[in-house]
Amino acid sequence: MSAAEVEQQHELVQRLRSVVARDEDEVKRQQQRIRTVADEVQQQLDETLPSLKDSLKMIATVNKSDLMEVKMLVRPPHTTMLVLAGTCVLHGVAPDSKADPGLQEYTDTAELPSSTARYWRPGKAWLNTSTFWDHMKAFQHDNISAETMHKLQPSTTHPLFARQRVVRCDLLTRSLFRWILAMEQYYLCSQRVEPLRHQMRAMSESLDTTLRGLQEAKQLLRDAGA
């Protein structure tokens, strides 16, 4: 190899080293920015977790007699019906196609959502299953869909779905009421941080591009014998 070729090779290696160093610094900067945004997202979500944990602790205090108290109700408080309907919506428990006429008339007098009475029988049946507690504990609060929240709104926006009403109800109703509010709060927070998540996805794509460029530069550097 001539002196000129050696010099060219040296210059090429130096340029490649410069590119590698630049890309490595850029990777570190991008990774730090992603961590910063991720921390902000998690911090906002974490603020909603105490109420969620507290609601689950309260549900854990419910015993079989508390469940029986609700299941034996013939004319349950309207608030209890709203709470059970909301719980069914979140867990995907399907309503009956038709409600008991007497129960439907009873809910209509309070102007409850039309589906509330249709959730009462399947809701009570679900409470009676051995998997009720497991479903409550394993509920995936990160996977609540917009469609589910839309179905939930008729229950949670009704005037009888209120703290001053639920304090007069049984322990199960009070527990599930707090659980629904916690889920709703978590979902709303999740929606607020969605722009940040979108930003993180875009930043991750940019980072992937930078990493590919870095690997290519390193390979060229190896090929150049450096």
What fraction of the residues are assigned to beta strands by DSSP? under 5%
Q: Please give the CATH architecture of the largest domain.
A: Up-down Bundle
N/C terminus separation: 16 Å
Question: What summary fits the major beta sheet?
Answer: none
Count of DSSP E strands?
A: 0
Order of helices and strands: HHHHHHHHHHH
Query: How many domain modules?
Result: 2
Number of helices: 11
Tell me the name of the CATH class of the largest domain.
Mainly Alpha
Classification by helices and strands: mainly alpha
Share of helix, binned: over 70%
From the spread of the alpha carbons, the general shape counts as rod-shaped
Radius of gyration over C-alpha positions, nearest whole angstrom: 29 Å
CATH topology of the largest domain: Histone Acetyltransferase, Chain A
Low-confidence stretches: none
* Overall mean confidence score, pLDDT: 89
